[in-house]
Amino acid sequence: QAASETVQELQKMFRLRTCEESVFRNRSRACLLHQMNRCTAPCVGLISPQDYALDVDRARRFLKGDESHLLDDLRQQMEQASEELRFEEAADIRDRIALIQKTLSKQAVISVRDTDVDVLAVYQEGMDIVVNQVRIRHGRHLGDYSHFLALNEEVSSAEVLEAFLSQHYISGAIPKKIIISEVIQEEEWVAWLSELAGHAVRLMASPQGEEKTWLLSAYNNAKITLEQRKVQRAAEGRRLEALQEFFGWEFSVQRIECFDISHTQGEAPVGSCVVFNGGKPVLSDYRRYNIEGVTPGDDIRSLQQVLYRRYGKSSENGAVLPDLILIDGGRGQVNGALQVLRELSLSHVVLLGIAKGEGRKPGLDVIIDPKQLVPHSMPITHLGFHLLQAIRDEAHRFALLGHRKRRQNARVHSALEKIPGIGSSRRKKLLMHFGGMRALQEASEQDIASVPGIGVVLANIIYQQIH
Fold first, then answer.
1. By the 8 A CB rule, do 175 and 202 touch?
2. Smallest Cα–Cα separation from 327: which of 307, 346, 308, 312?
3. 397 burial level (CB within 10 Å; 0-12, 13-18, 19+)
4. Domain boundaries of the chain, sorted by first residue
5. For the chain, how many helices (H) and strands (E)?
6. Per-residue tens of pLDDT for the chain, all 467 residues
7. Which CATH number fits domain 108-241: 3.40.50.300, 3.30.420.10, 1.20.1250.20, 3.40.30.10?
8. Sign of the CA dihedral running 443, 444, 446, 449
């Protein structure tokens, strides 16, 4: 079993073939493992013999324990791909590095017994800083957690670590030992942490043996994480540039707002608006809209209602307008949206729709431009296309969550109304006592029975009905 698990891990990390020679020689097309991104398909020439041999050599080095040189090699390859604007390849290498690091992290603490330790490693490049926190509880590695810091001026790694200690542990659990990558005033911090934790806390800046290995691993992970973040940011910027180049826009597109409507056969419709700026989501600007007074299933009218509510008072309140409005839908939704924008004197804002293509197959989406009769079919590998798909998927996810919540609340409320003996007065008492339908659902029978005027028998009926 151990050997089988090792083979599986190697296959994930290096995408080596596992088929027999007879199968390999006679295959005419790539197998399912290639589609799962776990094999590079040398059988049908989708990778050159030289590149495949390089992957085999990397797997051999990994098994020999030469992880340091292996990771350096991959990092250099990732950086070169990024510099040459081959961002998809850079992102692919980034993911392989992360998988290798994840495997190494699991191995690093395999000999620990019943130990609670945090390992904190600081890595910085100019104003880019990350603190990698490795959590070990009861001898088990619970994972690496990257904390990125945004500073307005350059500071030392020791100052970064002290700032992290003061902020992170003020409300979190504090282990008995914290291994740190920087030398700080240990006595002061030990006293403060011990008082906060209610038990003795030891800080260790110069670990030895196995603990030194953990710190080196945490530091390497911090370095890789920061490099991955830089590659990701470069790719995000390049995706915007690629989108702009494809459509020939002469202005800079930074802020994109995307809308989607979610419902179940017209029930509990919810509209979502997600916002991306510079290719990254702006979570604080996300909004959901409960749709009212629209014929069930009428997506166009639902979308128009959401757009009116989103932009109807934009000129009055000085709201920031997007450079691009993206609609999850076809020609009908796009034309409906265009009508609203014209009525609100916002037709100067670029409007696009993204709709499922032939057979509604993933990756065959088409882009609807209200100014063009024929939809745009962007290449499946186009970076701008990837950005539009990612934003659409996020709008869909956000709308679906809101719809499910609204639908559940509506169904529970409906179930409450059907219970004999629960009139408007008792419903009001229940909702006021628990603060809403969700809290009522989470309440126990005893909690429900404690509401004045309910009692044990009625509480049992309510509990059964809403569950």
1. no
2. 307
3. middle
4. 2-106, 108-241, 255-405, 418-466
5. 17, 12
6. 445 555 677 777 788 887 777 677 777 777 777 777 778 888 888 888 888 898 888 888 777 666 677 888 888 888 888 877 777 778 888 888 888 777 766 554 444 455 789 999 999 988 889 999 998 877 777 778 889 887 767 789 999 999 999 888 987 789 999 999 999 988 889 999 999 989 999 999 989 988 898 899 899 999 988 888 888 777 777 888 899 999 999 888 999 999 999 988 888 899 999 999 988 899 999 999 999 998 888 999 999 999 999 999 886 777 889 999 999 999 999 999 999 999 999 999 999 999 987 666 656 789 999 988 888 888 888 889 989 999 999 999 999 988 888 877 666 666 666 677 677 777 777 777 777 666 777 788 888 888 887 878 788 887 877 77
7. 3.30.420.10
8. positive
Q: 418-466 is classed in which CATH architecture?
A: Orthogonal Bundle (1.10)
Measured from the Cβ of residue 430, the count of other Cβ atoms closer than 10 Å reads 23
Beta-bridge mates of residue 202: 177
